[in-house]
Amino acid sequence: MSPTVVLGIRTHAKLLVLLVATVACCAAKGEDYGSVNNTLPKSMEGVGIDQKLGDVVPLDLEFTCASSSKSLGATSGVRTSLRQLLRDGKPVLLTLNYGNCPGMCIAQLNGLVQGLNALSSVQLGKDFAMVSISIDPAETLAKASATQQRYALDLFDHHDASEWQFWVGDKKAIETLTDAVGFRYTYDSKRNQYNHPSAAIFIAPNGTITRYVFEIGFVANTLKMAFVEAGQGRVGSPLDMIALWCAHYDANENRYSTSARRLMSLGAGLFVTLGAVASLPFWLARRSQSQNKSQTQNKNRLAASGSSSGDEGAEALSADNDLKNSVTN
Questions:
Q1: Tell me, what DSSP letter sits at residue 21?
Q2: What is residue 123's DSSP assignment?
Q3: Domains along the chain with CATH numbers
């Protein structure tokens, strides 16, 4: 074997040993070389949402309204409640935020404004009401009012900005409400901020929770279907009701998706209905012909019966005359 070949073999052997050693080192220290840690950050422990669909929210908890409202007849500083907000029979969109939030609330409320501005067929004030309640018991009316002006006034004119209420409350009322809707959050005293989830909670006029929408950038159609669902027949057109019946909310996709089973049921029902309507003229024509035929047969029978009766009468009269003649003779 030539010296060149031997040198090549030795070189490749050294490279192989080095590669194996490198792989072993990376495996031993995987946490330092791109390993994934799937555990939640400590600050997010205990934070989340437990959906309580079908539950009734506590309607008589009192909060303080930070701005005026036409529907409530309330001005800044007036005590109010969800019962008062729901008394007009409109569904309510509830968000839980706080004015000093450094990120999550800003993104959610901006996304909500954009989604509502793209929604014109269902309108704030006319079809539904909104309330954002601060989870910070230390938040002042002035801060909440400034937050309301920052977001609500960005709404397009087809929405009534005054119907987006911002409320503050004491710790007991806030904790009772957040517990009732399954909104779990924590307070970070080191950073003086709240760690909390993000959700739009839809409440029917009777106080029942109908839907949670977990979004930052809200889609207009998702908002519309959620309002139609929460409206219990009072929001949206008949076509919206049909669309809602044919759909289901996909929590993974965070949107309403068409239900194939319900769509097939609707298609089958329409097919049967259209078939019945299409065959109705033929059925009516056949029935009319049958009735005409029956009437003609009845007339013929009556005519035949009348002719027979006439013959019998003539025969009886002839017999009577014969009898008279014989008596006379």
A1: H
A2: -
A3: 48-235 (3.40.30.10)
